[in-house]
Amino acid sequence: MVIAMALYGVYSEVGKLRKVLVHRPDNSLKRLAPSNYQELLFDDVLCVKKTRWEHDVFVDQMRSRGIEVLLFSELLAETMQDSSARKWLLDRKITSNELGVTLSQELRDGLGEMEASKLANLLTAGLTFGELPRDLKAIGLARYAGVPVWNSLTNEAHPTQVLADLLTMQEHVHKPLEEVTFCFLVDVGYNMADSLLVGGAKVGMDTRPVGPRTTWPVESCLSQVRAIAEETGGRITVTEDAEDAVRGCDFLYTDVCVSMGEPLICGLSASN
User: Which of 9, 14, 74, 169 is spaced 20 to 30 A from 213 at the CA atom?
Assistant: First the structure.
């Protein structure tokens, strides 16, 4: 008796394996943490590099025995090249019930234009805040979210650290912050310095960034903080004269000469 098998499947526990679909460990394993691995049905937090190696060895062993091995990620990427298949899947994964009407539509549009292999990776590994399309980060996310969004750290700003710094200053002086003077030294033209300028201006402090002119904040930042300081009574003084800047300060705030991502030559120039 012949049984027609129109669909792929496992119809015998002892028959010969001819074709198998596997999923190579990817960024999804990087989401594992001590706080969530059990909820995600793992026995432990795995080493992604080692797990991939073990997987590849296993796949090589199957192929050496004539078994056809299909990779889920490749098939999904191939499927996502079909516009109708992509729409069908995203319509079911990105829903207004989960994300709200506006955010789901914005995210849906962004993923709808994403390169197929990258989209396949996100669909299997999940989407973190850092992987959101640029226009949905920070301000964009806050605009569409149904709950408050706290911007603790972006490439442009460090508001949470500045808030903590201001509270630390308040703990160590017996006067209001608007009477406090502090000096930020060295690389005064990057995100931490910009955030300190904004924070100092908002509470009306005497804020004195000091460093080589080549590292000064951009004019748009200075214009913003000076406008804030004008309303709060704060004072903003950007200078290269460290001796004059530190005179009479309540606090000195220092940092590295070269920020992350800058070439070494910047550090040599600043140190000179």
Answer: 169
Extract the tokens encoding 164. Answer: 């903590």
This prediction has a pTM of 0.48
- Domains of the chain plus CATH, in order, are 16-149 (1.10.3930.10), 159-271 (3.40.50.1370)
pLDDT tens over the chain, length 272 residues: 455 555 767 778 888 888 999 998 887 887 777 887 788 788 888 887 888 899 999 999 999 999 999 999 999 999 999 999 999 998 888 887 777 776 677 778 778 888 888 888 888 888 776 666 655 555 566 666 667 767 677 667 888 889 999 999 999 998 999 999 999 987 787 788 889 999 999 999 999 999 888 788 888 888 889 999 999 999 999 999 999 999 999 999 987 655 555 444 444 444 44
